[in-house]
C-alpha cells in the first residue's frame, strides 16, 4: 500500500508538472493567435502564400487555407477550405498535396513553442516544419503531375461545420483541451511505467533500433518519439520536456526526435481527418512518413558535422 501511495503521488506530481509546462505555452500563444486572427493576420499570411501555391499545382486561394492551418490548427485550415467555392474544382491529387502540406506544418505558434520549451530554437523548428512541408508539396505535385495519377475530381466525405469564432467558445474549447491533455498525459505516464515494468520498452527499442540508427537517435528516444508520432506533438513534446530536463536525452536526440514529431505526428487521427476531406493515402500517410524520415535522415547527416558547441548555440536552446 505504501508503494502504491508513493507511485500515485509521483504520478500526480509528474502529470501536474508536465501539464503546467504545456499550459504555460499553449494558453498565451493560443490567445495571441486568436487575437491576431481576429485582426486579419491569417488573410495577410494567406495573400503571401497565395503567390506560392502555383508551385504545388494549387490555386492561389489555397494559400488562405494553409495560412489558417499554420496559425491555428488543422480544423481551422479545414474550416477555411470549406468556405472556398474553388474546392469543387480540385482533383484528388491537388487535395492530397494541400492536406499533406497542412499535416506537416500546422499550429506553428503553439507547437513551435512546445519544441522551444524542450530545447529547440524557434527558427530551427520553423525551418524544419516549413521547409519539410514545402519540399513535400513539390515532390508530391511532381509525382502526380508526371504520372497523371489521381487527376479525377475530388469528392470529400466530410466538411467541417461552421462554428462561432467568438472568445467564449474559444475559452470553453481551451478548458476542454486542458482537461483532455492532462488526462492523456497521466494515462501516458502510467502506460510508460507499465511498459517499462513489463519490458515492452526494451523490446520496442530493439525492434526500432535499426531505424533509430539510421535516424541518428539513441535507444532512449524511441518511446517518446513513437508516442509523439502516433498521439501528437503536445503529448510527445510534453514527455520530451520532462526527459530533457532530467538529462536522459542527449542534445541531438532531442533535436532529431522533435523534428520527426513535428513533421509526422498524430499519424492515425490526423491522417483519417485529411482522408475524409479527400486526401489520398499515398500522400497523407505513405508520402508524409517517407518524406519525414528522409528529411530527418538529412538533418542527422548535417548535425553530425556540426560541433556540439555550435549546435547548442544555433539549434538547441
Keywords, separated by commas or semicolons:
317 residues; mainly alpha; transmembrane helix; transmembrane; membrane
Strand and helix layout:
Layout (H helix, E strand, L loop, with lengths): L1 H37 L2 H10 L11 H10 L2 H10 L8 H13 L3 H11 L3 H26 L19 H32 L1 H16 L6 H10 L1 H14 L4 H13 L5 H8 L4 H25 L2 H7 L3
Describe this structure in words.
By secondary structure, the protein is mostly helical. It has one domain (2-33, 88-156, 167-314). The protein has 15 helices and no strands. The longest helix has 37 residues, at 2-38. Keywords: Membrane, Transmembrane, Transmembrane helix. The chain crosses the membrane at residues 90-114, 126-144, 178-199, 211-233, 281-303. This is Nucleoside recognition.
Question: What's a concise summary of this model?
Answer:
With 317 residues, the chain is mainly alpha-helical.
Global shape: globular
Give a count of the beta strands, DSSP E runs of length 2 or more.
0
Helix content percent band = over 70%
Provide mean pLDDT, rounded: 81
By secondary-structure content and strand pairing, the structural class works out as mainly alpha
Number of domains: 1
* Biggest beta sheet attributes: none
- Poorly predicted spans: none
What value does the Rg take, in angstroms? 20 Å
Question: Separation of termini?
Answer: 42 Å
What is the tally of helical segments? 15
Beta fraction: under 5%
What letter string, H or E per element, gives the SSE order? HHHHHHHHHHHHHHH
Amino acid at each position: 500500500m505504501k508503494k502504491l501511495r508513493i507511485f500515485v503521488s509521483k504520478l500526480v506530481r509528474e502529470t501536474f508538472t508536465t501539464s503546467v509546462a504545456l499550459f504555460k505555452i499553449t494558453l498565451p500563444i493560443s490567445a495571441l493567435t486568436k487575437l491576431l486572427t481576429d485582426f486579419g493576420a491569417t488573410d495577410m499570411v494567406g495573400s503571401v502564400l497565395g503567390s506560392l501555391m502555383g508551385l504545388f499545382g494549387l490555386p492561389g486561394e489555397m494559400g488562405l487555407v494553409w495560412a489558417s492551418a499554420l496559425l491555428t490548427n488543422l480544423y481551422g485550415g479545414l474550416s477555411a477550405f470549406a468556405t472556398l467555392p474553388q474546392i469543387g474544382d480540385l482533383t484528388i491529387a491537388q487535395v492530397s498535396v494541400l492536406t499533406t502540406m497542412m499535416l506537416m506544418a500546422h499550429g506553428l505558434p503553439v507547437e513551435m513553442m512546445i519544441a522551444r520549451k524542450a530545447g529547440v530554437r524557434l527558427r530551427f523548428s520553423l525551418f524544419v516544419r516549413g521547409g519539410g512541408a514545402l519540399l513535400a508539396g513539390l515532390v508530391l505535385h511532381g509525382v502526380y503531375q508526371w504520372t497523371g495519377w489521381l487527376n479525377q475530381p475530388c469528392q470529400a466525405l466530410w466538411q467541417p461545420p461552421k462554428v462561432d469564432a467568438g472568445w467564449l467558445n474559444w475559452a470553453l474549447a481551451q478548458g476542454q483541451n486542458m482537461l483532455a491533455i492532462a488526462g492523456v498525459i497521466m494515462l501516458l505516464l502510467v502506460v510508460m511505467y507499465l511498459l517499462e515494468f513489463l519490458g515492452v520498452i526494451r523490446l520496442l527499442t530493439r525492434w526500432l533500433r535499426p531505424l533509430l540508427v539510421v535516424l541518428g537517435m539513441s535507444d532512449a528516444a524511441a518511446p517518446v518519439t513513437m508516442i509523439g508520432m502516433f498521439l501528437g506533438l503536445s503529448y510527445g513534446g510534453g514527455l520530451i520536456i520532462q526527459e530533457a530536463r532530467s538529462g536522459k536525452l542527449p542534445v541531438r536526440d532531442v533535436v532529431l526526435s522533435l523534428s520527426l514529431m513535428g513533421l509526422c505526428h498524430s499519424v492515425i487521427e490526423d491522417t483519417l481527418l485529411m482522408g475524409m476531406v479527400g486526401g489520398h493515402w499515398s500522400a497523407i500517410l505513405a508520402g508524409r512518413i517517407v518524406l519525414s524520415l528522409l528529411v530527418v535522415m538529412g538533418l542527422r547527416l548535417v548535425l553530425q558535422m556540426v560541433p556540439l558547441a555550435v549546435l547548442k548555440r544555433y539549434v538547441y536552446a
